[in-house]
Amino acid sequence: MAGGPWGRPSPGRDFGWLWAAYAASALGTGLAFSAFPLLAITVLHKGAAEVASLAAIGAAVGAAVAVPLGPWVEFRRKRSVMVAMDLVRCAALLSVPVAYALGRLGLVQLLLVSVVVAAADITFGAAAGACLKALVRPEAMVAAQARLESTTWTATVVGPPLGGALITLLGPVATVAADAVSYLLSAAGIRAIRGRESYPEREERTGARLGDLVEGWRHVLAHPQLRPLFLHTVLVNALIMATAPLLAVLMLGPLGFAPWQYGLAFAVPCLGGLIGARLAPGLVDRFGRHRVLLVSGSLRVCWPVGLAFVRPGVGGLLLVMAVQFALITCIGVFNPVFAAHRLRLTETGRVARTLTAWSVSGKAATATLTALWGVLAGLVGPRAAIALAGALLLATPLLLPRREAPTDTCSTPGLTRVSER
Question: How far does the chain reach from its first CA to its final CA, in angstroms?
Answer without folding.
Answer: 6
